[in-house]
Structure of Cobalt ABC transporter ATP-binding protein:
Amino acid sequence: MSVLIEASGLRLARGPQRQLALPDFALHEGERLCLVGPSGRGKTSLLHALLGFVPLQSGSLQVFGRARSREADFVPLRGPLGLLFQDPVDQLFGPTVADDVAFGPRNMGQDSAQAGQLALRTLAALQLEHLAERPVQQLSGGEQRLVALAGVLAMSPRVLLLDEPSNGLDEASCERLFACLLDTGLPMLIASHDQTLVQRLGTRILTLPA
Ligand SMILES: Nc1ncnc2c1ncn2[C@@H]1O[C@H](COP(=O)(O)OP(=O)(O)OP(=O)(O)O)[C@@H](O)[C@H]1O
Ligand SMILES: [Mg+2]
């Protein structure tokens, strides 16, 4: 099984005084690794560090077979590592849902028509086509989360980084989420407090100790 992400001895800088020490881990092809641990322990910080949004104080990080430490190492990962933010408001630009989901593919060079079709197909896979013309500010919390996920999936990522993906979703929406995620066949790193999600999706658990 090939290694996609490998981290050892990572410490993250969190403000001038704080450092977060993280356990060593690897993510392999075919895995869905669940990150669990108390609030404030560093699950979100770890996901953000994989994209260079939180600086590494020390340790070694390899992604797709290459060492990553400086900004230039992380830029090419923003796309192949598809991050679903813990707060979907951080992710949605709008103006409409369809525009928002098409934004990533357009940014990667697809023309408007292609990007628009891909956005609609991706929304349909999550049974969200009825929201396509809605302004993103007018979505419920759960709808925002699913639309943000559609935006991530439309970028054709190689690996998903999902930060509390089931937060705020009702049971039926969770079922759709699980089915859609499993359907992608993608490897994933999932930060979650949701035991049902961990049991249903996880192939392995990484616990960040208190
Ligand atoms: N922008 C920031 N600057 C400085 N410190 C931060 C920042 N964001 C978060 N922190 C701190 O970093 C630590 C880890 O936070 P993080 O959000 O990674 O935890 P978490 O495990 O994801 O928590 P939760 O389960 O509540 O989502 C916390 O102590 C938090 O207060
Ligand atoms: Mg978090």
